[in-house]
Amino acid sequence: MVKCIVIGAGPAGMSASLYLKRAGIDVLIMEEGVPGGEMLKTDKIENYLGFDSISGGDLALKMSKQLKNLGISIIKDKVVSVSKKDKFIVKTLNSEYVADYVIVATGRVPLKLGLKGENDLLNRGVSYCATCDGAFYRDEDVAIVGGGDSALTEALYLSDICHKVYVIVRKDLRASEILKNRVKNKDNIVILKNILVNDFVFDDRLTGINLNNGDKLAIKGLFIAIGGKPNLDFLSDLKIDINNGYIKTNEKMESSVKGLYAVGDVRDKDFYQIITAASDGAVAALSIREEN
Ligand SMILES: Cc1cc2nc3c(=O)[nH]c(=O)nc-3n(C[C@H](O)[C@H](O)[C@H](O)COP(=O)(O)OP(=O)(O)OC[C@H]3O[C@@H](n4cnc5c(N)ncnc54)[C@H](O)[C@@H]3O)c2cc1C
């Protein structure tokens, strides 16, 4: 029996645990992999306050050390189900826990194009986050794959940094009118509709892409913005309000299930960043403290 179980040791879960522990609330944090989450996939973070530039691995290590110094132990285990009677029952691959509160901080997996070389080119020309990596492509030609709101938001962001931004859409743009109009007013954004990326051209880094109309684009960066899949299969026993696959919360990070909070990338929100994930974690923990 524990007061609060945090599922996932990315920045959201680690921040929640830190705030809970400092508030004197008994907390256990479960992580199926290595603490750090998606941060571990990037070698340069330049937008997290307090660090001019730091690798994702180093930032993750600093965060997990901070937890360790506070006496918070991260249990290496995968949560397979969460159910609720009067309390929450959290089942993992190896054990079962009972808790008054659960904070879900399990993040999401960005959807991939599934093309040859995609994994190897991560951080070497291929990225899933323009806000994170756009600055590495200053004055270069880049492309974005995707036609939704996030793809166009990223295109607008990149258009202020990069020389030319191609937006490659499988069919037509699905984004809101306001974003479409903003994009139209940008001279350096080119929309390519009804087009697919056939394959990547690369040596040790991406140098271009071949399109299914026979054209080749010489670009230094390709941003894939075709959505993400939140990790929440283990919540299927609970009736949680979901929007577009993400957990809906109020401003306190409470889901529709009393006592269950969602923080970070698994939550339905506008901005998916380390700093916003850490902020969500702090808010959830402080909301739980308020109740106790
Ligand atoms: C390539 C890349 C580069 C990025 N660069 C930046 C950047 O420069 N700046 C920035 O601000 N943001 C960046 N981001 C975004 C940032 O990494 C995420 O917004 C942030 O990590 C989200 O934090 P989170 O804690 O919500 O989720 P995550 O970091 O995804 O952590 C979730 C954790 O939960 C664990 N987990 C999942 N399911 C279970 C389960 N069933 N049981 C136990 N554990 C589970 C996972 O193993 C993982 O460790 C980048 C993302 C990517 C992919």
Q: Could you explain how this protein is built, in words?
A:
It is a single chain. This protein is an alpha/beta fold and 292 residues long. The chain has two domains: 2-109 and 228-291, FAD/NAD(P)-binding domain (3-Layer(bba) Sandwich), CATH 3.50.50; 112-224, FAD/NAD(P)-binding domain (3-Layer(bba) Sandwich). Helices cover 23% and strands 28% of the residues. It has helices at residues 11-22, 56-69, 130-133, 149-159, 177-184, 274-291, and strands spanning 2-7, 27-31, 74-76, 79-84, 88-92, 96-104, 108-110, 126-127, 141-145, 164-168, 189-192, 197-202, 206-211, 216-218, 221-224, 228-230, 242-243, 246-247, 260-262. The strands form five sheets. Strands 1, 2, 3, 4, 5, 6 and 19 form a seven-stranded mixed beta sheet that branches. Strands 8-15-9-10-11 form a five-stranded parallel beta sheet, covered by helices on one side. It is elongated, with a radius of gyration of 20 Å. The two termini are 16 Å apart. The structure holds flavin-adenine dinucleotide (FAD). Flavin-adenine dinucleotide binds next to helix 1, strand 2 and helix 6. The site of flavin-adenine dinucleotide has 38 residues, from helix 1, strand 2 and helix 6.
